[in-house]
Each structure stands twice: as C-alpha cells, then as structure tokens.
Amino acid sequence: MGRRTGVSGALSIVKSRPVVAIPQSSTRPRASRSSLSRGPRQRHQGRLWLIRLWRLLVFSGGAVGLAWVLLEKGWWLETPGQVVVHGVSHQDHGALLAASGLQLPTPLLAVDPSSLQRDLQRLVSPTLQVQVQRTLAPPQLVVSLQHGVAHAWVRRSSADRVERGLLDHRFNWTGFDAQHQGAQHLLDRFPMVKSNVLVLVDFWTPGLPKTLARLFSDLERLETRVNTVRITADGQWVLGTSEVPGEVRLGQPEDLSRKLATMDHLYAQLERKTPPFSYAYVDLRNPEQPKLGLSQGQGAISPIGEDFRWPY
Known about the structure:
This protein is α/β, with parallel strands linked by helices.
C-alpha cells in the first residue's frame, strides 16, 4: 500500500508539470511563404506597367493624330485675308503680299516670322519698322508696320561710288535712293526726317552710330544751327553752320560735349561782336584754346582774344 501510494504520487507530480514545446526553426517555412507571395505581386506590377505603357502609346498616338489633323486641315494659310497687315491700305496690302513671295496655301507653322520680317523690311521704306507674328486661333499672320522717323540724311562716299541713305532711329546707315525709290520700296516713298542736317561720311565704321547719337543729342540743346556734319577718312569731324561761326573743326570726337558747348558760346559771342578780320574756320580741336583759321594771305591760325570770355 505504501509503494502504490508513492508511485501514484509521483505520477501525479509528473502529470501536473506543464509541457514546454521546443521551438523549431521557422526559416524554411518563412522563405517559402515569401517566395509564394512575391510571385502574384510581380505579376500585378507587370500588368500595371503594361497598362501604363498602353496608355502612353494611346495618348501619344492621339496627340500625333490631332497635330496632323490641325496641320493638314486647321493651321493653314489659304487666303490673303489670313495675312493681316496693320497700317496699310487694301491696295498696298495686295502689293506687299505679292512682293513678299509668300505662296498660298501653306502650313502656318512652316512660315518663319523672322525670315519673312527681314524680307518685308527690305521691301518697305527704311523709316517703316516691320513686325511679324503668328496666331493659331484663328490661324493668321499678323504684320504690323510702324512709321518711324529718320534722324538725318546721309551721303556715304567710297572709292568708286557715292551712296545716299538715312540715319534710322538707331543712327544706323540705311540705304535710300530717291531716284529709284518707287522701284525699290513699296510704302512710304517720302520718309520723314527729323532734322535738316546732312551727314557726309568718307569712311563708315561700326562705332559711328554711337558717336552720332551723342552728337545729335547735344545738337538739340544748342542754339547754333548746324547744317552739315562731315566725317573725313582719317576720322576728323567738321561741322558746317548757316551763319556764324561758319566751319567748325572738331578734330577727333573725343570730349565732344565740351567742344560743342564751346562752339555754342562762340556763336553767342560772334553774334554780338564780329572780329575785325575775316576767318576761314574755327579750330576747336582743343576746346580750352579755340582758334580762328584766317583766310589765305592773312596767316595761319589766330588765337581768339580773352574778351570773348570762354566758359572754360
């Protein structure tokens, strides 16, 4: 009885102990599950990529087709009325369109506005400024002509010929022959010139427009009436006035504003007091020491007296 009781007590103790499960490695099952789940995900991403590619192809094809329809059927210049020219009459509109060489019908996008603008600028008067633009809705070419004013007439001499032209709004040389103007230009056959100054140039250089702009800006503020501006081949500047002081030799265009101010002061002094001798020209190459060039037989150069009260 005692042994049985001991054995049954031991069995009850064993039965009451909790059973602890031994953890097993889960590496292989997890790898198998991830490989199984990756397959459907990749197939789904592949389907999305194909759908996006298909949409891109459809949209690109639609855009190309729409562009082709617009080019073939919509954005075309078919009638002269689609070339709008502002600033000219109906008769000049037809003449300008015929001389431009624009062939109708033609695709609107095939027309280069810059090239057409240069061609039209050569056809019209130098005092007209041309601007060409394209409009898609409605399909048109819009040509704007703005009437400008030239600064002065120019006569440019070279070794074998003499050219006549204008100083445009930027003081650039622009060829203009009044005898052949009707054949060369279509519009504005009589250009508007701002001043009555004739510029005579023996040698044109790229830096002349900037210097001429400074000269004409100063001349507008002077009382001396200048008729001619002569620029010699060696770069000497000579002004011609209607009355006094006559011919004014400025030399090189350095210190131009000071020389012109001295000339204007001399004009006021000579208007009030005539020198006791005749002179051929005024030498202002050095504005601080102006001199009178005497006539032939009277000597070379005579300094101007102090009673003229020079401003410098």
